[in-house]
Amino acid sequence: MTAQNNPSSPPADDAKVWSGRFGEPVTELVKRYTASVFFDQRMAAQDIRGSLAHARMLARQGIIADADLAAIERGMAQIADEIARGEFVWNLGDEDVHLNIEKRLTALVGDAGKRLHTGRSRNDQVATDIRLWLRDAIDQVLALIVAFQSRLLDVAEAHADTPMPGFTHLQVAQPVTFGHHLLAYYEMTRRDAERFADCRRRVNRLPLGAAALAGTSYPIDRESVAADLGFEDICRNSLDAVSDRDFAIEFCAAGALLMTHLSRLSEEIILWMNPRVGFIDLADRFCTGSSIMPQKKNPDVPELVRGKTGRVNGHLVALLTLMKGQPLAYNKDNQEDKEPLFDTADTLIDTLRIYADMIGGIRVRADNMRAALAQGHATATDLADWLVKKGLPFRDAHEAVALAVREAEARGCDLSRLDLDVLKAAVGPVPGAAGLLGPDALAALTIENSLAARAHAGGAAPDAVSAAIAVARAAAAKAASATP
Ligand code: ARG
């Protein structure tokens, strides 16, 4: 019989809090395999905060004495201080952040420390800690999205009227402006922010009081703990409260979408800064060189954003898979929720920070954008639209302009460079088309007119882009003031 389960001898210092029931200690490997303290110590501040709210409630309800509460508060203040100064000794044998702190508390304040866990289980404790931690992480992500959007809008505003080719199938399609193009990413990240804010509402509910799974026999007051911790509501079912991690999955899903959007932008940045495209240049501080090729300037940061998107998508799948086979209520599987969750938040926060700086510092090569627009017959649709407005059915107009494009291709020039006579001859096979064409048809082929024609809300015209930026700025100001 070992010292730690011999009822006549006091438990050894490294005995588990639950070791009384066991005939032998766990092996070193099992100890390491089951411990989470090396990653869940990140939640120490939340663990202390949750414990203090629980202890205050226990005292209010007369479940522990006021003197115990005072001792717990004193001990926790010291522990917080020790952690902040890097002096707290985390012990693998004490499994997780919860037991490490509780054990230190008892060492500091004696029996009051042992009373803290009254009416509580690590199951509702850990669920509370994660929610507190994630709530803070969401608030950081939301603030960083707003900061990123603000830099994005600055660049969009500066280039509200800078023409660039819009692409479909990565082929030149129609003129847009660079500002308009960037606003697409503003819209994507606006929806991302909505998703995080919505997720926050479901994160912000209190599990404490569920105890291990069935609630507790003490006269607890869950609403007051919720109010103390800033939760908007309590979890309404004790089994659900300790077992589900859907709120963490939602966060990772919102994160995967945000990263997917930034990954798409990264792909474009990589493409745009390829010397054959040359639409933008990235500041040197976001690029690296090659150890062998002296001329290289590689877009490492956007490439890594694209790469890290795979990592975040992986975390989402990991959490979904973690959850899918679990019967009610708590299972130790859930300990595996933290690393993917933490890494998702870390990746989002770093990525948003770096992106705000990177997008704000790009150099736009408007001349190259315009040169690219002069090559792909980008205003062909405008000529077709012009013919339609003169009375030609759209399908005939499409056919006529397709013939004109073939003529331009044969001559090795852009459609907009054809003389009126050549244009008329080219559309000849389409009845009625040539007769409609006059000098003002050529005006329809200019980039400026093509853009200006799309002045409706959401369109590519510089005026529409400026109006969209004004709306975005107003929304961003509102979001910034609403961020908790
Ligand atoms: N470290 C554990 C976790 O992260 C805390 C809960 C432990 N609960 C238990 N019944 N073993 O999930």
Describe this structure in words.
The strands form three sheets. Strands 1-2 form a two-stranded antiparallel sheet. Strands 3-4 form a two-stranded parallel ribbon. The chain has a two-stranded antiparallel ribbon with strand order 5-6. Helix 8 packs antiparallel against helix 11 (246-272) and helix 8 (178-203) runs parallel beside helix 21 (462-482). The longest helix is centred in the first third of the chain and has 37 residues, at 122-158. The two termini are 55 Å apart. It is built from 21 helices and six strands. It is mainly alpha-helical and 484 residues long. The protein folds into three domains: 24-118, Fumarase C, Chain B, domain 1 (Orthogonal Bundle), CATH 1.10.275.10; 123-371, Fumarase/aspartase (Central domain) (Fumarase C, Chain A, domain 2), CATH 1.20.200.10; 380-445, Orthogonal Bundle (Ribonucleotide Reductase Protein R1, domain 1), CATH 1.10.40. The chain has helices at 28-34, 37-40, 44-60, 66-84, 97-109, 111-115, 122-158, 178-203, 222-228, 238-243, 246-272, 300-324, 338-360, 366-373, 380-389, 394-411, 420-427, 433-436, 439-443, 447-452, 462-482, and strands spanning 163-168, 171-177, 205-206, 233-234, 280-281, 363-364. Helix 9 (222-228) links the parallel strand 3 and strand 4 (233-234). It is 61% helix and 4% strand. The structure holds arginine (ARG). Arginine binds at residues 36, 40, 96, 122-123, 126, 330, 332, 334-335.
